[in-house]
Amino acid sequence: KEVVDRLRYLEAEIEDLELKEKELDQQKLWLQQSIKNVMDDSTNHQYPFQEMVYICNCFNGDTLLAIQAPCGTQLEVPIPEMGQNGQKKYQINLKSSSGPIHVLLINKE
Amino acid sequence: AQECQNLEVEKQRRLERIKQKQSQLQELILQQIAFKNLVQRNRQAEQQANRPPPSNSVIHLPFIIVNTSKKTVIDCSISNDKFEYLFNFDNTFEIHDDIEVLKRMGMACGLESGSCSAEDLKIARSLVPKALEPYVTEMAQGSISSVYVTSSS
Amino acid sequence: ACLTPRTALLYKFNGSPSKSLKDINNMIKQGEHR
Q: Tell me: the pLDDT tens digits for A6-34?
């Protein structure tokens, strides 16, 4: 009898979890659409920007490169390897197939 | 008893999936709040100044940021059509997307770290659909852990 | 075409989640510590 009760309880729990998962899927879709609406809204289209001085303030005087690229552009970072001069090589490779990539050097000075 | 065991395994799998989906939802909520905050702030600034900011002082979303020490030497090769770039750095770098930058600027009302003032929480709740407000309240206290649909059984 | 997860990490604009960039940053940091 205990096993049967446990079985019924588990079945009910799984039913709840299924409902919860469906709810989460729906909420995700709503939010994704909502974010898209905010960005695509014609009254908003000029406002999703960030001032460079604020970006600089977030990164403590570092050199900053801002990269704008078309959807689907691939950014590849090879695992750093020791170069022939004994120094490690750090690389970023950008490849677009649908449009030019724009790179800005953001320098506070 | 075998069926019980199978259901236990199924239950764990579903719990794991729900945990992942809640984490994804949390991230989307932060994005929604950060973007809406940004748009509102920029709109207000433009209205107060009666003009948009100079175009060479801003960068439009979406973007990613590569940051490295100011002592780093960066070698850049660009294809003629600008479809391909190769950067060589002689030092480490980090890469962050625009949402990460917005979080660092406080555009997500501190929700990403659970450190949210009462005023910020009020603002954050007003920027999401009503059905998601309980999530925002939980995130202000740490992270989403226990917002569940009430069981009908 | 020859790349595998052992040689490089990838991120796609408007396709990959933020986590992919965090993975790249961790890989760079781990290499540095080693």
A: 888 889 989 989 998 998 898 888 888 88
